[in-house]
Amino acid sequence: MSRKSDLTLDKASLRSIALARRAAMLPAAREAAAEVAAANALDWLGEVSGEIVSVFAAIGSEIPTAPLVRRLRAAGASIALPVVVECGKPLLFRLWEPGEELVLSAGPGRLQIPVPPESAPAVSPDVLVVPLAAFDALGNRLGYGGGFYDRTLALLRRAKRVEAVGYAFAVQQLPTVPVEAHDERLDAIATDTGIVLPAGE
User: Fold this and answer.
1) Which residues are documented as binding site?
2) pLDDT, tens only, 71-126
3) Which single residue of 5, 91, 187, 197 has CA 20 to 30 Å from 40?
4) Which residues are documented as binding site for ATP?
5) Which residues are noted in the entry as ATP-binding (predicted)?
């Protein structure tokens, strides 16, 4: 078996471990952790007034992002949500106005994800809050395997300075996460126990 195949299997097993931990969290613990993680994220981001911040709409057992959205709006940020255009392509971002009802759109695989309606303006975010399956103490991120955020960050970073913040429960941390050449580095990971910074920072 090739090294790449070994790495793919390794990533799949690590992803399963972290996602099982996340799914095992009780509802009350999830809600409390999401509030703390939101406060930690905003503390790290600092001044966001006038900035466009992309925040994913949590699905399944993902960390709820509503507390973070509430804090970001109160701090003067505009909120955008990612839209999957096509497999293998970067994400598109649409502005999400307060009170605007989200609609379901095709996501990776068979997933349906909540997004702003097609009438919402497309925007280029200044900050990306990035979902993840697992992470390690060095700030390495393990995503869901689609590569959407890696492609998107690579594209955005060629055009301007963009901050990328991973967002997850602390229970998703693993001893180590494999890193490949195409993996885009995060600036930080915000969790309910604090901020994880990349190696060397």
Assistant:
1) 11-15, 62, 141-149
2) 999 999 999 999 999 888 999 999 999 999 999 998 877 789 999 999 999 999 99
3) 91
4) 11-15, 141-149
5) 11-15, 141-149
